[in-house]
Amino acid sequence: MKLLIVSGSQRTPSQSAKVAGYLSRVATQFSETHHIELCRYHLPFWDGEQESKTDESSSWPLLSARIREADALILITPEWGGMATPILKNFLLMCDMQEVAHKPVLLVSVVNGISGAYPIAELRMNALKNNKLVAVPDHLIIRNVEEMLNDNKSPQSKLNLAATSFETEQTARRDSALKARINYSLHMLYQYSQALSAIRHQHLHKPYPKQQEYRYGM
Predict the structure, then answer these.
(1) Does 2-207 carry CATH code 3.30.565.10?
(2) By the 8 A CB rule, do 154 and 22 touch?
(3) What percent of the chain has pLDDT over 70?
(4) Distances (CA, A) of 178 to 18, 22, 23, 139, 209
(5) DSSP labels for 48-65?
(6) Overall pTM surpassing 0.85 (yes/no)
(7) What is the DSSP letter of 168?
């Protein structure tokens, strides 16, 4: 099973990419794990026409090939004004059923505070209808993200340590609990990826009559 992690921050470096790096390291259930940091690629603004994806400067053909290979996805977004980022929503509009239909996706929101629920609600409500990604019941909200999932060797971690002198016991407990929750979420995502691979096989080899008439969700 292959995992694709997509971080949707529109700037670099970012806490979203940091979280993606951690998830890549601990997602050992999957045979391959790849990370796409969207802001490092050129994605045209989706105008509803297929031609816009294949513009001469577009990175979409490269990304599309990586998406097609994946058996499961993780989408990571910072919370911007209570919303997922425009670059991630544009990415999801560009994804079509041939690339992502009936593949499980774990939704992850990161925020340097205590909110973070709104992007998850937004993505569940209106980001998965036509591409037919399947959001798993679990999701992750990484609150106070600058304090979480830090490598002691990272520049961000050194900055935090310099500012606070030491990591508080409360922060350490929250970090440990978050890591345990991540391990569970990845375990479940892997289970869904195995189960849904059978559905995709059936969908391809034993299609429902005239199934293309129902390509758009309700």
Answers:
(1) no
(2) no
(3) 93
(4) 15, 12, 12, 12, 45
(5) S-GGGGG-TT--HHHHHH
(6) yes
(7) -
Tens of pLDDT, residue by residue over 79-118, are 999 999 999 999 999 999 999 999 999 999 999 999 999 9
Residue boundaries of the structural domains of the chain? 2-207
Token pair 């992007």 is at which residue? 119
Helices in the chain by DSSP H: which ranges? 15-26, 60-69, 86-94, 97-100, 117-126, 155-164, 169-205
Q: Place 217 in a pLDDT band, splitting at 50, 70 and 90.
A: confident
Amino acid symbol at 49? E
- Separation between Cα atoms, residue 83 and residue 9, nearest integer Å: 12
Asked whether the beta carbons of 65 and 96 are under 8 A apart, the reply is: no
Q: Map residue 80 onto helix, strand or coil.
A: strand
Could you report the per-residue pLDDT of 53-88, keeping only the tens digit for each? Answer: 888 889 999 999 999 999 999 999 999 999 999 999
